Amino acid sequence: MKKLVLFVFTAVSMGSFAQSITENLYFDLNVGTRFGGTTSDSASLGAGLHLDGGVGYELNELYAIKADLGFDTYTAKNAAGTTEDKSLLIRASIQGVVNVSDLAGFGTETFGLKFHGGFGFATNSNPSFKDSYTANGSEFADPGFKGNDDMINFIFGLNPQYHLTEQLSVNADLSLVLLAMQSNYVDRAISPAANKAMGNLFNASVGISFKL
After folding, report:
1. Which of 35, 56, 156, 177 has an alpha carbon within 20 to 30 A of 202's alpha carbon?
2. How far apart are CA 79 and CA 45, in angstroms?
């Protein structure tokens, strides 16, 4: 009997703990556009596709933490406009989130504004550069992802939200991403020159946020 009571008590306690955790979880999914990117003087660069998704945990009504994964495409062209050089930046970040509208007292049942900022790891993959480098049998000896330009990213953004329900919101997101330790230009197949400046890009996207 004691074992049964202990089992029931443990099961209820674990269930309550798990429920309290899941109630504070939320998920983001955004799609939009990438602007900017560090290119050489030999190339021009237009806007690209941006996609990101993340999972967050609300510590309280004002503060949260989240982990997210983002994807940004680049299509650079040489000066003559005859060669396209495509690459993909993948980044993973840990961020802190502040509910600015509630903190400042202007949030409503339908509108909210959040600030998010953090850091993480990013890597840019350029298939054309990789193919040309390995065409004669050469092998990559760089650390990290072989043949990629690996870097540290810092991200800062604003996230206005329109709350459809208590669980579902429509998002807009404007984010600046700084890329430290970026060794090469995004048009690496057009210009193999080393990049000595900090890289950067800007994301403008829309999406949804769902709270469990």
Report:
1. 56
2. 10
**Rounded to whole angstroms, what are the CA distances from 162 to 27, 50, 167, 203?**
15, 21, 11, 19
DSSP state of 194: B
pLDDT of residue 82: 85
Phi first, then psi, for residue 207 (nearest 5°) are 180, -155
Compute the distance between CA of residue 183 and CA of residue 126 in angstroms, rounded to an integer. 13
CB crowding 26-35: b at 16 or more within 10 Å, else e:
bebebebebb
Provide the pairing of β-strand 43-45 with 25-35: unpaired
Residue 15 has pLDDT above 80, yes or no: no
Q: What is the predicted pLDDT for the residue at 174?
A: 98
Instruction: Kindly report the backbone phi and psi dihedral angles of residue 2, in degrees, each rounded to the nearest multiple of 5, phi listed first.
Output: -60, -40
pLDDT, tens only, 98-131: 999 999 999 999 999 999 999 999 999 999 999 9
Strands annotated E in the chain: 25-35, 43-45, 48-58, 63-78, 84-99, 111-125, 149-163, 168-180, 199-211
pTM of the model: 0.87
What are 95's two structure tokens?
Answer: 């961020």
- The C-alpha atoms of residue 137 and residue 83 are separated, in whole angstroms, by 24
Residue 172 has pLDDT above 90, yes or no: yes
Q: What is the secondary structure of 34-49 as a DSSP string?
A: EE-----TTEEE--EE
Q: Which residues, in sequence order, are CB contacts of 34 under 8 Å at separation 6+?
A: 47, 48, 49, 50, 72, 73, 74, 201, 202, 203
Residue 64, pLDDT above cutoff 70 = yes
